[in-house]
Amino acid sequence: MLQQISSGKIFDSDDIFLAPLNDYVFHAGKRFAEWFMQATDVEDSETHFGMDALDDHARTHKPTVYISPYELCHLHYMLEQHMDDMAPKKQGTLYDIMNDLGPSPFKPGVQLPKTTWCLKLSNRQDDLPQDSSAQLQQLVTDTKRLVVYIIKIQSGRHLQDIFDQPLEDPHEAQWVQLKQNEFLPQEDSSYHESLSQKRRFLKLGNTPLDINDLTFAQLKTITSRLVVHLGKFVDRITPDDNYQGLLNMIAEDITGKNTRRQTREREITKLKTTLGHLLTKKTYLSDQRQSYEDYLKVSMDVMAKKRGKKQRFVLPFSRQYFHMRNLAKQGMVPTFGSYKYTAKQLFDRGVILNLDGVDKKHYDRIPITLSMDEAGIINFEGRYANWSATSVHMDIQYEQLLQTQFEGVQMMTLLDGMVKVNVNLLIYMINKKFYSA
């Protein structure tokens, strides 16, 4: 019986035992439907839970859902079958998501995997939505403010009559006084100064319009054109009633100040909560970044020290042999090694692409030294008599080289822009000399 009443279906007329109850089922079904509508008439979830579009950006950990492909596709299918009931106006977030997803792959009888998946939910929009209706609403608000300025100085039978009235000298003088009161802060505080600046500038295009620079005649011209423009988009603003609808909107704003104040207080509370979440997320991400950097530094130190313990064989009486012997005499042998090449050797290997202002036939006269005394910091040094500085050297972090490679940069300059190198081959050579076992 409860099943029939809740579903609103009467019994089959052929059922001689239950058919007499159809009148009761019919009326009870109506009462049940009314009760059900009252029970489900609640505020939306965003208001109830104090959520907004910023919550996804402030959340440190994304929600996790465990669901099988069968359940996921079946849920998609059920929503698809009942979209006319769930979104009868064909608008809203759910309707937009269903349109983006397209038709469900689920069909009765189709076999789908039932293995459970772990899904981490993410925001379907990376950026905050840019709503054109919000821009229109801002334009309406600004226009109402300009209309209020005008009716403080001139009056008439209706708004169109005020726009058509001629100007007199006292009107300009009153406008100058109004601008001083409105746009120049009367109290010495950053809040009042900020509020005055916000009222003063009107964002109608790429460059904000400074209302303080306008004459009263210019103000009336701009305002009348804005009102006519809004009449094309806002139903309540129409020339048929001489734009009385706009005046009614201003009157509603004045009488509804208390309600708007309460709304703003709720929004401020919500924004403070969101700000707290963002600060928490900032701290979380900063700690995570520091952990990654510490781990990377420790790993690089371990790799460099492991490599530094092994003495690489140096061919006697070679350039590298005399280079290391000279460093040993001076007591300047780097902790993790030092390697000396000519620019020609590195050019032939593809590491060096070009030397600024040096002919290729002179590359064999330019020594280039790569050293590492501190883990993760590579020292480059080059010497050439015709350079402005005979010896040029620089330090570069290995992590910076890896970041450059990750960003897809193929070439970079070193030694004050004098040497152009291939990033990938340079990293390969550094790995081979300082980090490989």
UniProtKB/TrEMBL annotation:
Top-rank lineage group of the source organism: Eukaryota
Pfam families the UniProt entry points to: RasGAP_C
Residue span(s) of domain RasGAP protein C-terminal: 218-358
GO molecular function, one term: actin filament binding
Gene Ontology biological-process annotations: mitotic actomyosin contractile ring assembly actin filament organization
GO-annotated cellular components: mitotic actomyosin contractile ring
Protein name, per record: RasGAP protein C-terminal domain-containing protein
Taxonomy of the source species: Eukaryota, Fungi, Fungi incertae sedis, Mucoromycota, Mucoromycotina
